[in-house]
């Protein structure tokens, strides 16, 4: 009998790549918390608990031509699309060499023009109409790409969500929206935010398919995003996918989730940790043993250590660069 990953069209090599990107995201994220608590970087907003949804989805896209508009937790998505741990650390330390903004952006506002990653901004959900607009441009110019955007379930209550999806539905645009439902919007639980049972129920209003799936299983997420991507590439329009997973940290480095979550709830999360459950799947299927697991982890730790040291020692921007990109420059901005 074919195993789950074979049915989804994934090889052992694919699974190891997915695992390695998930693990890289986790290790970079953990390092940023240590740096924050040591007073070296100002802010962290975590991907921890959402790596399976993020990397499973990104793996189903084409990272050589598709456009993505990620949200602030999507470290796993942007790593697969070509941002490096060094890029992430340069941004976290706000150093001049940060390739996205020269140290101007808030950490977690990912972006990279060369890899078609639209730069994020703080008002939640703004990335959705941006992604829909890029999809419209691609369709009008008959270009061969789709767009993918993500947001949290709390953000699906913003006007931008409804306006963007309705427009995408009306114009049958090649765009996939993935809601990463981690059950909280800061301290507000799901049932105090969303009136319907699932966020995906809302898809019907916008004339597109909507599904709610297990966000702790990267194979399941890959399968659904691949189906949605194939539909979009065939010209059959947009899709809404809701992944359900856990937010394994506080909302950000600036709050304490023990104020609004019980000790039992936090303890129960550990069994669902996608790094552990996917690691167990790889071992049960003879794809990874303890030795390979250690080898992968050691390789990642070297990269994370080098990225941290590099960014920590890199120079800040010169003060006179502060107003760069604020006013038009003679001869045009870079
Ligand atoms: C328009 C707007 N309103 C409020 C905020 C403050 N804010 C930042 S993150 C957040 C919660 C978002 O929750 P959710 O969409 O569920 O994503 P999660 O952080 O849980 O992944 C809020 C209210 C904001 N950034 N933008």
From TrEMBL:
Q: What is its EC number?
A: 1.2.4.4
Q: Which Pfam families match?
A: E1_dh
A molecular function annotated in GO for this UniProt entry is: branched-chain 2-oxo acid dehydrogenase activity
Q: Which UniProt keywords apply?
A: Oxidoreductase, Thiamine pyrophosphate
Q: Which superkingdom, per the lineage?
A: Bacteria
Q: What class of enzyme is it?
A: oxidoreductase
Catalysed reaction per UniProt? N(6)-[(R)-lipoyl]-L-lysyl-[protein] + 3-methyl-2-oxobutanoate + H(+) = N(6)-[(R)-S(8)-2-methylpropanoyldihydrolipoyl]-L-lysyl-[protein] + CO2
Which InterPro entries does the entry link to?
Alpha-ketoacid_DH_E1_comp, DH_E1, THDP-binding
Task: Give an example GO biological process.
Answer: branched-chain amino acid catabolic process
Per UniProt, residues of the Dehydrogenase E1 component domain are 20-320
Q: Which Gene3D superfamilies match?
A: 3.40.50.970
The coenzyme or cofactor needed here is: thiamine diphosphate
Q: Does the keyword Chloroplast apply?
A: no
Q: What does this protein do?
A: The branched-chain alpha-keto dehydrogenase complex catalyzes the overall conversion of alpha-keto acids to acyl-CoA and CO(2). It contains multiple copies of three enzymatic components: branched-chain alpha-keto acid decarboxylase (E1), lipoamide acyltransferase (E2) and lipoamide dehydrogenase (E3).
Its family remark reads: Belongs to the BCKDHA family.
| Name recorded for this polypeptide | 2-oxoisovalerate dehydrogenase subunit alpha
Source organism of this protein record = Planococcus massiliensis
Which gene is this protein's source? bfmBAA
